[in-house]
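In the previous chapter we treated chains in isolation. Here, by contrast, the input contains four separate entities that must be folded as one system, with a combined length of 316 residues.
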Amino acid sequence: MKISAQEEYGLRCLLELARARDGQVMTVREIAGKEALSSAYVEKLLRLLAKAGLVHSLRGLKGGYVLNRAPSQVTLGEVVRAIGQVPTTDHICTQFTGMQAECVHFSNCGIRSVWSGLTNYIQNFLDHATLESLLGDEYAVSNRLAHGLRQAHDPTRR
Amino acid sequence: MKISAQEEYGLRCLLELARARDGQVMTVREIAGKEALSSAYVEKLLRLLAKAGLVHSLRGLKGGYVLNRAPSQVTLGEVVRAIGQVPTTDHICTQFTGMQAECVHFSNCGIRSVWSGLTNYIQNFLDHATLESLLGDEYAVSNRLAHGLRQAHDPTRR
DNA sequence: CGAATACTTGACAACTTAGTCGTGTTTCTG
DNA sequence: CAGAAACACGACTAAGTTGTCAAGTATTCG
């Protein structure tokens, strides 16, 4: 259970774009500089994000990357799903099969319930945080997160 | 963001032990058979669990593994922490540093808040599910999980 | 004792993920 | 049009995870 490097750095790059004033383009070099990452790596990450439709690229001189939507319209869930391989509920028990073609507990699996419960639980968290909610200083972000979760963290409530 | 294979299979092995009647020892071979995994692999996983104090091993003929505590006294959180490298809050921003010795946003980091919030959120889920709650059939497990979470999933409430 | 059973340990090969590099393509500017 | 700035892409190296193997140690039982 861990956050992958791509997810971490991809989100950072996206946040740099979100901080750019009114849809200003930023070059890979600028972003790399601000995040102390190599340009080559930032490029790779941005291409992933572009493929997922979260950012848009402009080629040529004066080119660069821009956020495709307002920061308030992009959820962390989308970012993580775009960049990392997030296991969806149906990967469970087809991904882990041991030595047989099908999960040993296919018809009655105690693990599946927890894993899919956990997966949903996490998605719920991520889907309620937007890029915008991560802007501003750290203290403010913590507060917003705690507040957002108090309202929205219960996957079982209607 | 994903569940590692070790976490998955380690939990499965532990559940097999939890299903054994009144602390009956089970051999690696038996567990491997029931979960359709190789004996070598199950051995490795059980050693990890033993190192963490979750199971106890008995050597020699008639040896095997036993759960160290009652299933109701073992939380998923412990299992996952024993087996996988769960990032704690203080790994964040020391693990991901880019090209500098210290995180670029050390003093004011928008990412840290989310990541640590997410980490706590997940731990909260895992710490409220016990091995016992995963026994029984899948339908019952789902219900118990939903029920448990409704009471205990809010890290911000006191 | 000695043979069989079962855990113990560390090394290792296969695979996946992380991060880099070189070369190519597009666009702007003079 | 030529050169510079910037993205595009695929191949490649390095590092970390998975899963296996072989040789070793402890325990039981005849």
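Confidence is low (pLDDT under 50) at residues 151-158 of chain B. Chain B touches chain A through 59 residues (CB under 8 Å). Compare these points with the single-chain example from earlier in the chapter.
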